[in-house]
Every structure is written in structure tokens, then in C-alpha cells.
Specification:
- The chain is built from 18 helices and 15 strands.
- With 509 residues, the protein is an alpha/beta fold.
- It has two domains: 76 residues, no CATH class; 376 residues, Aldolase class I (TIM Barrel, Alpha-Beta Barrel).
- The protein starts with a helix and ends with a helix.
- Bound molecules: flavin mononucleotide.
Length: 509
């Protein structure tokens, strides 16, 4: 710091004291001569106190250098997402989901106008721009065919799943009214609802089909030590509503990262659902204790299959080390045990809370992962026994068609379903202060979310997206989803060239 700037700081500091002394004297004189009301004096004195406090505190340099006024910066910054969204956001701005993506979910959920006007906002000359090839012989695609049977020959209770289902989000990450709305929506619309790894709560039991997810914490089926408990598992797996079991190995937003339930969020209700002690901090480790290599993972799948009385069993994975997935696939041949389905979650997937490095730089994106898994299974002649479910920013009919073209049999949408509940992308899931009552446990917030209204929106989103898919693939010349070909989808790879998905992802089908 040079001499001059030191001088400026010292004089700014002195100025504060001079302003304070001057203001106090004026206020004192006005009181003395009875010329001013007490209602005016109190706020002035409070502001003065803040001014003095700011100038002597040492944590925030901006406030120390610009007392009182410096506070504006923090105040405005705390409303940055809202200000941006309300005033400055363009149609294709906004992350992770742009305004156009969010708006189409709101429109489809509310069953209101679902068209847009005037033309494309995206730039078709942009590298990465994707499109589908239409046909001069469009077909009528039947919505009733948008189903897939999950369960290979080892399964005795096959499940006829919709090609679009609600992705895993636990009760705990989401509120009780959000979970109940999702499950009722699944019932109304005839699709499935993944429980997330937090166990099955009464809010999940509204009549909609469930895919029970089991994570490293084995919530709802764990013993005192936190290990998998056969008896507890088989009791819950027998619920009529539980249609499939998903063992979670990893999720795209935080692969290889465990979770933590803080003691204050561990209420007696949550503790009972998860089979843990209330008001204690509970860790979900990053690794499973029931298996530690490819063979033992497959033996665990077989154990779970038997305990669930042969319901479809699969696992969820975000692709990291490719050789590990290849080893699992090879072990399927060695052991003869095949999962009924594999869920592939892209690195672009969402979460309630995770470290920045995991969200931004860990795991493989959905399109690359899906084509890799599909190709690996085809190469080893396993593909016919295993269905693939894809998740990672699936919002529109185009997103669904694209993932089906890359080898998926069905999709999950997690954040899309949150939008259908009214999520405004406030980016506050980890604060517990979700303004629309979805990602919160505060009753003052979640009671604003009306289950009877929101469940209809969830079902509408599904129905209208299926209608959009029917129109979209029909225009491409397909009459059902199984006909969709990767060669109908294109990506711009440079200013003057583009490739179809077959060339890009070297698909083996
Ligand atoms: C609030 C929230 C909670 C989540 N909880 C879970 C969970 O319990 N288990 C899991 O496997 N994935 C969880 N996920 C990830 C989603 O299931 C999904 O894999 C990911 O968000 C990608 O789908 P999307 O792009 O449609 O949201 C969660 C995501 C969000 C946004």
C-alpha cells in the first residue's frame, strides 16, 4: 500500500467518526429543543450504530471501507438468482435449465398452451447443436406403445414400465408434500416413482408404483451397525406398490461421494423410516458394505432378487472408470447373474447438495455413458437380458427420443418432475429454505404445496410429454419407440460439418 492510499483510508476512517459525532450532536440538539419525534430518532440511531459497527469490524473489507453502503452489495447478491431470472434472463439463458426448458414443463403441467411462436431461438450453426431428421412419410405413433417390460428370465414379477418415470429423490431431500404429490401423480399418470435412497415413507405410499432405491446407508433395510438386513428388506420389498429394486452405486452429480444426514434434520419420523436413531448425525458412506467387487455385486443382486421374491432388480451408475463397468459386464457372463435393468445417470445430473468439484468435474456425460454401456452389453451379447434406463436433463420429447436412439429403453426425469411441482430453480435445495416448499423440511414452506393440485400437474406433464413424443417420432417416420434409430439424430461438429449419432457414438446395434 503506498503512502497516498494509506492517507485516503485514514481520512475515510476519520470521516466516519466525524459524521457520527456530527449526527449525534444534531439529534441530541433536536431532542433537547423538542423538534423531532422519537419514531424518527430510533432508526437514525440504529443506522448510526450499524455505521460505526461496520467501520470497526474486521471480517468484511467492503463494509469496513464503505460502512452501511457496503451492505447493499451483500443484500443484492443474496437475490442474484431471482433478479437474474426475473429481469435479465433470455429464453436460452439460465442454468442448469434454461427458461425455455422450464417454461415447457410449466405449460405441460398446467395443461395450457404448449406452442411457441415466430421461430427458433437457438443457432443451428452452433457447434453442438442437435436435431432429428423428419420423414416425408410421417406416421402416427401410438402412445399406448410407450411402455417397456422390465425383467429377464430370472425375474418372476416383470414390470411394465412407462418410458418416462420420476427419478430418485428421497424424502428428506424433498418435503412430505412434494413426495406425496409425485407419488399421486405417478398413480394418476400410470408411471413409476423412484423413492431415492432415503427409504419408503408413508408419503410414498399414495398408490403410485414405486422403484425402491437402496443406497450405501441401506435406509429402511439396515441393522444396528448400518449393514444390509435381509429380513427388513424382504418385509418392505413385499409391498404391493414396490415394483422394482434399484441398488444405487453412484449418481452423476456426486459419484463416489457419500451423504450426511445432520442430527437436526434427523427427526423421529425420518429416523423411523430409515431405521436410525433420531437426532444423531448419520453418514451414508461412499462405498457399499454388502459387496466390494464385480462378482460380489452380482451375488448381492441375486440375494436381493430372491429376498424380493424375484421382482426386477437393477443398479444405478454414473460411468467413471470404464474398465470397472466392463469387469461387471464380464462377471455377468462368469456368474450367469444378470441385473434386470441398469440405470445410467449422466454427470449433468442433479442433487440436493454436493461439492463443486464433484458436480462440475466428475463422471461421464449421459450421451457418452449411454452409448458406452449399450455398446459394451451388445459386444458381450448381454443386451437382450438387460433394459437400460437413462437420466440426465431429460425434459422434452426430443430429449427422450435422443436417449432412446442412443440405446435407452426408458428414462427418468428428476428435476423435470420438480419443475412440474412448481420448482423455480432458486438453487437453494441445500439451504432447507426452498421458497416453493419442494426441497425443504420447514412446515411453513412445504404446507404451501397443495398435493391434490400438484399431483395433477405431475400427471399432466407426463401425459403431455408423451403426446409430444408421439408427434415428434411420428414426424420422424416411426410408429413406436423401438423403431427409433440413432442415424435419425445429428450433431453439428464444426462450422461446416455434422455427423449422425451412429457415426459419433459408433453404436453397435
Ligand atoms: C433434490 C435431489 C435429490 C436427489 N436424490 C437422489 C437420491 O436419493 N438418489 C439418487 O440416486 N439420485 C438422487 N438425485 C439424482 C436424480 O435422481 C437424477 O439421477 C439426476 O438429477 C439426473 O436427472 P435429472 O437431470 O432429470 O434431474 C437427486 C437429485 C435431486 C435434484
Amino acid at each position: 500500500m503506498n503512502k497516498n492510499s494509506k492517507f485516503i483510508q485514514i481520512s475515510a476512517f476519520n470521516n466516519i467518526w466525524m459524521i457520527s459525532i456530527f449526527t449525534s450532536t444534531i439529534v441530541f440538539l433536536l431532542i433537547y429543543f423538542n423538534r423531532i419525534s422519537l419514531y424518527f430518532i430510533i432508526p437514525v440511531l440504529l443506522l448510526l450504530a450499524l455505521l460505526i459497527y461496520d467501520s470497526i469490524q474486521k471480517r468484511h473489507s467492503v463494509r469496513r471501507n464503505y460502512p452501511l453502503i457496503g451492505r447493499l452489495r451483500y443484500f443484492l447478491e443474496s437475490y442474484r438468482p431471482e433478479l437474474r431470472q426475473y429481469f435479465f434472463e433470455g429464453e436460452l439463458d439460465g442454468k442448469p435449465f434454461n427458461r425455455r426448458q422450464r417454461s415447457i414443463v410449466y405449460q405441460r403441467s398446467k395443461n395450457v398452451k404448449q406452442t411457441i411462436s415466430f421461430g427458433m431461438q437457438d443457432d443451428p450453426g452452433r457447434i453442438g447443436y442437435e436435431w432429428a431428421a423428419h420423414s416425408v412419410y410421417p406416421k402416427k405413433a401410438d402412445i399406448q406403445s410407450f411402455k417397456v417390460e422390465i425383467g429377464n428370465e430370472a425375474c418372476k414379477q416383470k414390470y411394465n414400465a412407462s418410458i418416462l418415470n420420476i427419478g430418485a429423490m428421497s424424502y428428506g431431500a424433498l418435503s412430505k408434500t412434494a413426495i406425496a404429490s409425485l407419488n399421486k401423480g405417478a398413480l394418476l399418470g400410470g408411471f413409476a416413482h423412484n423413492t431415492g435412497e432415503g427409504g419408503i415413507s408413508s408419503h410414498h405410499l399414495q398408490g403410485g408404483d414405486l422403484i425402491w432405491q437402496i443406497g450405501t446407508g441401506y435406509f429402511g433395510c439396515r441393522n444396528e451397525e448400518g449393514h444390509f438386513d435381509d429380513k427388513l428388506f424382504s418385509e418392505k420389498a413385499a409391498y404391493e406398490q414396490v415394483k422394482m429394486i434399484e441398488i444405487k452405486l453412484s449418481q452423476g452429480a456426486k459419484p463416489g461421494h457419500g451423504g450426511l444426514l445432520p442430527a437436526k434434520k434427523n427427526t423421529p419420523e425420518i429416523a423411523e423410516i430409515r431405521h436410525i436413531k433420531p437426532y444423531t448425525t448419520v453418514h451414508s458412506p461412499s462405498a457399499h458394505t454388502a459387496f466390494d467387487n464385480a462378482d460380489s455385486l452380482l451375488r448381492f443382486i441375486e440375494r436381493v432378487r430372491i429376498l424380493s421374491n424375484y421382482k426386477p432388480v437393477g443398479f444405478k451408475i454414473c460411468i467413471g472408470r470404464r474398465e470397472e463397468f466392463e469387469a461387471i459386464a464380464e462377471s455377468m457372463i462368469k456368474t450367469g447373474i444378470r441385473p434386470d435393468f441398469i440405470t445410467i445417470d449422466g454427470a449433468e445430473g442433479g442433487t440436493g447438495a454436493a461439492p463443486l468439484e464433484f458436480i462440475d468435474h466428475m463422471g461421464m456425460a449421459l450421451t457418452d455413458a449411454l452409448s458406452f454401456v449399450n455398446n459394451t452389453l451388445i459386444k458381450l451379447n448381454l443386451r437382450n437380458d438387460i433394459k437400460l434406463i437413462a437420466s440426465g436433463k431429460v425434459i422434452t420429447a426430443f430429449d427422450i427420443a435422443k436417449t432412446l436412439a442412443l440405446g435407452a429403453d426408458a428414462c427418468y426425469s428428476a428435476r423435470g418432475m420438480m419443475f412440474s411441482l412448481g420448482c423455480i430453480q432458486a438453487l437453494q435445495c441445500d439451504s432447507g429454505k426452498c421458497p416453493v416448499g419442494i426441497a425443504t423440511q420447514e412446515s411453513s414452506l412445504y404446507k404451501g404445496l397443495d398435493v391434490s393440485d400438484k399431483s395433477v400437474r405431475v400427471a399432466n406433464f407426463h401425459t403431455n410429454t408423451m403426446k409430444a413424443l408421439s408427434e415428434f417420432i411420428g414426424a420422424c417416420g416411426y410408429s413406436n419407440c423401438s423403431e427409433i434409430k440413432a442415424s435419425s439424430f445429428f450433431k453439428r461438429t464444426s462450422l461446416n460439418s455434422f455427423s449422425d449419432f451412429n457415426e459419433l457414438y459408433q453404436l453397435k446395434n
